Amino acid sequence: MRDVSMGQYYPASSVVHRADPRFKLVILILYLVTVFFCDSFFSFGFMTFFVLVTIFLSRVPILKVLKSLRFVIVILLFTTLLMMIFYSDTSGAAPLAEWGIFHIYLNGIYSAIKLGWRLMLLVLMPTVLTLTSTPTELCDGLESLLSPLKLLHIPVHVFALIMSIALSLIPSLIEETDKIINAQRSRGAAFESRNPFKKIKAMIPVLIPLFVSSFRRADELADAMDSRCYRGAKGRTRMKKLKAKLSDFVALLFWCAITVCILFLNYNWCGWAFITALGI
Amino acid sequence: MPFLEFKNVEYSYVGGDDELIQALKSVSFSVERGEFVALVGCNGSGKSTLARLCNGLITPDSGEVLVDGVSTTSKSATFDIRKKIGIVFQNPDNQMVTTIVEDDVAFGPENLGLPRDEIRARVDWALSSVGMSEHAGSGPFRLSGGQKQRVAIAGVLAIKPELMILDEATGMLDPNGRREVLEIVKKLNRDENMAVIMITHFMEEAAAADRIIVLDKGSIAADGGKELFTTPEVFEQAGLDLPLYVRLAQRLNNIGLDVGCPLTADEFADAVAKAVKGGEGKK
Amino acid sequence: MIEVKNLSFVYSPKTPFTNQALFDVNLRIETGDFFGIIGSTGAGKSTLVSHFNALTKIQKNSGAVIVDDMDLSAKKIDLKKLRAKVGMVFQYPEHQLFADTVLKDVMFGPKNLGLNNAEAEKRARDAIELVGLDCKEIAERSPFELSGGQKRRVALAGVIAMHPEILVLDEPTAGLDPKGKREIMDLILRIKSDCPTVIMISHNMDEIAEYCNKIAVLKYGRVMGVFSPRELFGSEELLESCGVELPLVTELAVKLNALGIAVDKSVLTESELFEEIKKAVG
Predict the structure, then answer these.
(1) Which of C112, C142, C163 to mutate to test the interface with A (most CBs of A within 10 A)?
(2) Architecture of the domain made up of C2-243
(3) Angle CA B127–B133–B134, to nearest 5
(4) Helix (H), strand (E) at residue B63
(5) Maximum Cα–Cα distance across chain B
(6) How far out from the chain centre does Cα B124 lie?
(7) Which chains have 3 or more CB–CB distances shorter than 8 Å to chain A?
């Protein structure tokens, strides 16, 4: 059985896998912002090139990446299609084709392709992140990045601990669910029914034992944590500290450079033109 | 002053039918540093309640539980008591707080607020003590039940308690897992001089301890060394079996073959061999 | 009768996590058998038995399982009929209890078989009595209020009320104290008079030696052989090659032999060993 707590992590040894999760998260945010600035086909192509380079460096097979995106791709194609047929051109250009209320314009096709491409870029990189980092790494990275919030008395530690416990309990809960479903199927329960009411009713014999066992687990876990001297964040230290490597800084600088390039491409940046373009 | 002392401890809780269940009735005993005690009793005899009373997870209705002379009812002492007494629970899956073995073992020392190097050293030491060093970086999900329970032991060990309680910690394991855990517990008791209370209903495990406490319906029915096996009524009344070799020895004694009361399987074989050969000699 | 022919099974095929659980398994379980399945954790025991009532689908070109006249590798299986025929009791079956009364919980299976309320209730009451609980006293109580041993009996009753012809038990005595273990095993023997075929997975070699008439040994997903208890536990070489540990009785018999006391090493119960020692004494 596969370990669900690993998310969709694809184990491999690569620079992308080894990178500091904090840097990966920061780069991801920088990347997402940059994609929003992309406007021309050239800038989309430019970004796509670097995404492909990242995927190549991560040693995750490209098919694997696309496979984990297969549902997104369906939605994406659908959105693109809608954009194409409902585009209303205000420039006065003649439509390329029309059926009833649907008109297809050249600009419409361009906009639709851009929209689809942009969405694709937006989902691609987070997928690469989750394929190359374990949930635990992301959790630690997030906790570290959010640690300044402690000054505002936000219990970052508690959130991180909750996430970590959830991740560690998920596999046994899923296993347990499987077992209960199998036990009830053996007693003739039909989860295969097409009738939605019957289906919901069929879930009760699964959900109740699952709740009962989850509460029992929570109780036991609380006892185990108490017994191991847990008393909240008070006086607590950590064994591991994330350490940034030179390569992490290089990667960050590199992506900063890409962002600057995109801004140059889009805004023909000289002096204040960039700011005015933002509309400030 | 004994390390752990129960003085006339009573404890009740409300059961499923809203009836008050008296789990422990006037329980008194003490455990010294370095002792290896087996606490046996059938299901519902109050064993787990007793374990939870030791480190203040629950407090007695009346009577006192003292750790190094300090009562567990004192809130300010709880943290120190838990540093001294660790508990390993039954289900290994419900004791893990992280998805990586070494991070989980570090949880206890992190709570103690130790410096980073010290935590690292303790984690490495604890993992090697239970023979799990090579799995330090893996996820508990891929480990066997026995291995997971060894990690749980390491998690308690890293706090460096003076007494480790195993609350039916072998109950969900297969025979291999049970043996792994028992070997480690014996080793910790011997090499680290750690006191151990092993709660179990496997009598072969209980036979490994120096002292056996029999709990029956919330009271201590017997408390003594392995010579307790010579009074089988105590165990039978408490709903427990004696180890197989003790039962056989009794039946052989009854038919006039004197094998005494062997305390291990090897002793049994020796005693039978002696008795048989002695009998032949007489002929 | 259950016949397993060249059965293989792979978890998560075609992924980095792929894991073959069964390799070309062949078995024949006759009506009337008390069939033991042993092997260390991860040997494939649970995966194997989950094929017996089609909880696990037979994969393409991976062999066949035939239960009486039903071929489970067929495209369409009458699941209702199969699951009425093969009762499955999982490890810690008390974890599957869900209804607000014991009676309703035990009636769940019979009702799923399409029986009317009256018939289902009659079966449920009979089953509760059969597992040694007082139906009058317990029927209307919540199953969650019962003691551990009682819960397990209720769960067993829930399967027995379906009147299976083949009962599969996965570690039926796990987690119970010695008295509880004996009670459950006695109960299973009682059930066996109505449900002729019993298949039991267990790590407890003492139970296997005492109760089973045939034992299949699994190791890394392969069947090492099917033996009678005396064949298996009487042969140290066989036990070693199969990676099976000795029941305590056998262990003592072996130790006695090493000290020159000739007792039969294939003894299976305490009483048999006692008689053997008595004989050796003369």
Answers:
(1) C112
(2) 3-Layer(aba) Sandwich (3.40)
(3) 155
(4) strand B62-67
(5) 74
(6) 24
(7) B, C
CA triple B222-B223-B227, angle to 5 deg: 95
Could you tell me the residue ranges of all domains in chain B?
31-61+73-240, 243-283
Phi-psi region of A109 (alpha: psi -120 to 50; beta: other; left: phi over 0): alpha
Q: Which residues contact C145 (CB under 8 A, 6 or more apart)?
A: B15, B16, B17
Cβ atoms within 10 Å of A270's Cβ, excluding its own: 8
Joined together, the tokens standing for residue A242 give 């994330």
- Numbers of helices and strands, H then E, in chain B: 10, 10
Binding partners of B (≥3 Cβ pairs within 8 A): A, C
Is B238 in contact with B220 (CB distance < 8 Å)? no
Q: What value does the CA radius of gyration of chain A take, rounded to a whole number of Å?
A: 25
Alpha-carbon span C186 to C136, nearest angstrom: 22
Q: How many Cβ pairs closer than 8 A exist between chain A and C? A: 72
What chain A residue is nearest to B86 in terms of C-alpha separation? A227
Distance of CA A137 to the CA centre of its chain: 14
The strand ranges marked E within chain A are: 97-99, 102-104
- Cβ-based neighbours of B18, under 8 Å, separated by 6 or more: none
The interface predicted TM-score (ipTM) is: 0.90
Cβ of A230 under 8 Å from any chain B Cβ?
yes
Q: How many CB pairs under 8 A join A and B?
A: 111
Whether chain C has a CB inside 8 Å of the CB on A162: the answer is no
Calculate how close chain B gets to A168, using CA atoms only, in Å. Answer: 5
pLDDT for A273 equals 54
CA angle at B218 for the pair B88 and A218, rounded to the nearest 5° = 35
Q: Does A240 touch chain C (CB under 8 A)?
A: no
Contact between A220 and B95 using a beta-carbon 8 Å cutoff: yes
* Torsion region of B46: left, alpha or beta (phi above 0 gives left; psi -120 to 50 gives alpha): left
Three-state DSSP class for residue C24: strand
Using the predicted structure, report yes or no on whether residue A158 has a pLDDT greater than 90.
no
**Size of chain C, expressed as the number of residues it contains:** 282
Q: Min CA distance, A273 vs chain C (Å)?
A: 51
- Residues of chain C contacting A184 with CB distance shorter than 8 Å: 96, 108
Report the relative pairing of strands C64-67 and C2-11 from DSSP bridges: antiparallel
In chain C, domain spans: 2-243, 246-282
Give the closest of C40, C174, C277 to B176, CB-based: C40
**A184-198, B104-118, B221-235: range with highest mean pLDDT:** B104-118
Predicted pLDDT at C52: 96
- Residues B241, B245, B247, CA angle at the centre, nearest 5°? 50
User: At residue B15, does pLDDT exceed 80?
Assistant: no
**Strand, coil or helix: what is B257?**
coil
pLDDT averaged over chain B? 91
**Quick check: B110 contacting A, CB < 8 Å?**
yes
List, in sequence order, every residue forming a beta bridge with B20; answer none if it has no partner: B14
Cβ atoms of B50 and B59 within 8 Å: the answer is no
- Residue A231 DSSP class: B
Name the band, by pLDDT with cuts 50, 70 and 90, for residue B282. very low
Q: State how far the Cα of B96 lies from the Cα of A228, in Å rounded to an integer.
A: 11
Which residue type is seen at C173? Answer: T
Q: Which amino acid is at B263?
A: L
Specify the CATH number of the domain B31-61+73-240: 3.40.50.300
- The C-alpha atoms of residue A31 and residue A129 are separated, in whole angstroms, by 12
- pLDDT number for residue B280: 56
CA dihedral over A147, B99, A233, A238, signed as positive or negative? negative
Q: Which of helix, strand or coil describes residue C179? A: helix
pLDDT of the residue at A1: 40
DSSP string, A88-128: ---S-PPPSEEETTEEE-HHHHHHHHHHHHHHHHHHHHHHH
